[in-house]
Amino acid sequence: MAPSDMFRFESLPVSLIMDGQVQDEHLQQLGKSRFWLKNELRRNGVSNFRDVFFCSIDHDGKLYINTYRKHNPNR
User: Fold this and answer.
1) Domains in the chain, start-ordered, CATH in brackets?
2) CB 20 within 8 A of CB 52
3) Which tens digit of pLDDT belongs to each residue from 21-63?
4) Cα 65 to Cα 73: distance, rounded to the nearest angstrom
5) E strand or H helix at 26
6) Could you tell me the pLDDT band of residue 11, with boundaries at 50, 70 and 90?
7) Three-class DSSP category at 34
8) Cα dihedral angle (29, 14, 25, 16), rounded to 10 degrees?
């Protein structure tokens, strides 16, 4: 069996938001819009782009969302 038969290439995740800033060029390359991204974030409990530290999408279309942690003075 050839090594190329043993592994299947999967593309790397694509960043969509970094440090609260939408990566519009990446959205455009994927054929997606800010409207689509906003709706996906809302479905995951995030209301604002600025609340997201990092967001990416993988080859299967699954989003990874890492939000900023809000400081809670009661803790």
Assistant:
1) 10-58 (3.30.240.20)
2) yes
3) 999 999 999 999 999 999 999 999 999 999 999 999 999 999 9
4) 24
5) helix 24-30
6) confident
7) helix
8) 130
